[in-house]
Amino acid sequence: MLLNDDFTPMDFVVVVLENFFAMNREQATVVMLKVHREGKGVCGVFPRDVAATKVEQVVAFARRNQHPLACVMEEN
Predict the structure, then answer these.
(1) Residue 6 CA from chain centroid, whole number
(2) Fewest CB within 10 angstroms: 19, 41, 48, 57, which?
(3) How many Å apart are CA 27 and CA 70, to the nearest integer?
């Protein structure tokens, strides 16, 4: 899941969803707007090890680009 913040640009969130979660622009925009409006959005459902890796990759990418974007995993 991605969590909303007041600093990360919407375009950056779309890029994250396209690059790390293999979404096309339309899918990524829908999820980004859900994050923006509802505070969080589901990026996908993955096995625990894959999800943990994606969380680490997204957080590292966001920090390298100086954004506080939070990516977390929840268990079903």
Answers:
(1) 14
(2) 48
(3) 19
Which parts of 1-76 fold into alpha helices (H)?
A: 10-21, 25-38, 48-64
Tokens 């943990």 identify what position?
52
Q: Are 12 and 65 in contact (CB under 8 A)?
A: yes
pLDDT tens-digit series, residues 48-74: 999 999 999 999 999 999 999 999 999
Contacts of 13 (CB under 8 A, 6+ apart): 2, 28, 32, 35, 36, 69
**pLDDT reported for residue 53:** 98
